[in-house]
Design brief:
The chain is 45% helix and 18% strand. It is α/β, with parallel strands linked by helices. The strands form 8 sheets. Strands 14, 17, 19, 20, 21, 23, 24 and 25 form an 8-stranded mixed sheet that branches. Strands 10-7-6-4-1-13 form a 6-stranded parallel sheet, sandwiched between helices. α16 links the parallel β19 and β20. About 5% of the residues have low confidence.
Length: 622
Amino acid sequence: MSDSKPPRKSFLVRFFNWIWGIFIGVYRLVMVVWILLLATVVWFFFQGGAPVHVENNIALTLIPTGTLVEQVNSAGQSILRQLGETRPSQTLLRDLTGALDAAATDSRIPFAVLRLDELQSAGLAQLQELGAAMKKFRAAGKPIYVYGESFDQTQYFIAAQADEVSLDPMGSLMLQGFGMYTNYFKDALDKLGVQINVFRVGEYKSAVEPFLRNDMSPEAKQANQAWLNDLWDVYNQSISAARKVPERAADTYTRNFAPELLKRAGDAAPYALDAHLVNHVETLAQFRKRMSDKVGYDKDKGSFRQIDFSSYLRAVKHAQKAQPSAKIALVVVQGEIVDGESDTDSAGGDTISGLLEDARKDDDVKAVLLRVNSPGGSVFASEKIRRAVEALQDDGKPVVVSMSTLAASGGYWISMAADQIWAEPSTITGSIGIFGLVPTIDQPLGKLGIHTDGVGTTPLAGAFRSDLPLSPEVKTIMQSTIERGYHEFIAGVSKGRNIPVDKVDTIARGRVWSGVAAKGLGLVDNLGGIEEAEAAAAKLAELKPGAYRLDELEPERDILAQWLGKLLGGSHADLSFLTALLPQHAAMSQPVRDAALLFSRFNDPRGAYVYCFCTPSAGGGR
């Protein structure tokens, strides 16, 4: 070993090492500060934020943004809302109804104001629940005022439940009715040579039709028209009752919109006023002036004195006294039901069954309220959740289902064993059917000169490869599996709802029903919202009002991952990010991208699905 010393580094090297050391030190310091700040924010959020003072004679403002949801699926988004983000992409329905319920008996709140311009989407059943909360608020002698630059069909349903509706002079009220339209891919698939092998039970199970046809089948049109008519009837009845206008005034307004607009040289606001669907045509400044005359003017806000519903809820929470130990656990199933864990837009069978198992093990939980807003998905995942429901019942804990906008197919599968099922008249449910999809791409590969061949020890070796056509044996296996699943489905409905199997079969076959029709068929027990379902669960558990608390069980979330997801565009990050990188994909239509996203979640281990393509929209869409 040499005793010579290592050569001394040059001044220049030592200088840059010194600079680099300073940079690393500053970087580490910034990271430590950032982590501490993040920890503080998280702690601050879960403590409910800073205390809020509610002044006397101040208006409660409700300004929902984005999509109305049953459970906010982004913890990062919730924190950002606490920090003052003004336009979150989701609004929790229970926050709106909870604020109205609390303010109804709060002497400091004389009235409420709604702005609905940023509300992008909501189900009719959700709108009915919000409307019911508004009705109770008004029954306490407190008026509600709504202002809108314009109103679409979703926004107007809520606006109509108020005492006064104001519309901007440049605005319009656009009602379209409900429609059900989708893209059909048969010709495109034939041109590509992609073979979609479909296995299903039920002539009304139309979820697979886009891959088999170029149009909607007569059976699907018949079934869809029936429940769409039910929803439009509910909409019309609610508008007529709230606005005290003739029956089907909304339908009349919609059908006459074009000629009436022609009479008024395209000026839409006066037509809404003449139809008595709005009370005032005025600017926002005029509206704010009228509200300021009631509660005073806030110079800082440049508007009337007000408190937003999120801040008001924090104030109410801080003022709450110690709550009882007895609990009704609330578990939300929102989005497609998938095998495995939940993500931001889906309900994982493992996640939801795990939450139900936590409720079963918690001695303080006396009953479970299962809130369902799902079109279904994986059979296996749905069955996991249903078994967890039965485990709760076996332990003497009643389970009550509250159906929101959509609780069809797998959404009904997880509900059918409950002690009681509650739905809104406009809830979309049923779709008791099952299907399997197996695409094969041997023909497209053949066009590229790629062929698959080989040997196996049995006829099933390699039989499920996508680059080979399905053999008769595989088709028999798949169809048998699907038929078995269907019989399990209708047997479960028969047992859970106490309906003979033969009768279940006649009302099943994949057919979709509105909540009001499902009630007549015995598929749901009662019509009502989540509050009525909660009261039913308390009664079954022999809990008196005030002797329990509603405890929402949520899956654990990685907040940093949620924030990254937000930065990349949320649940559609993978597709939108790819589009940004590959501009040639930007021309891909939204329905195709939605279909790609949806089928990426079809992960049932047996390839069997209970799913319903039955989300209506104003005028059309899927």
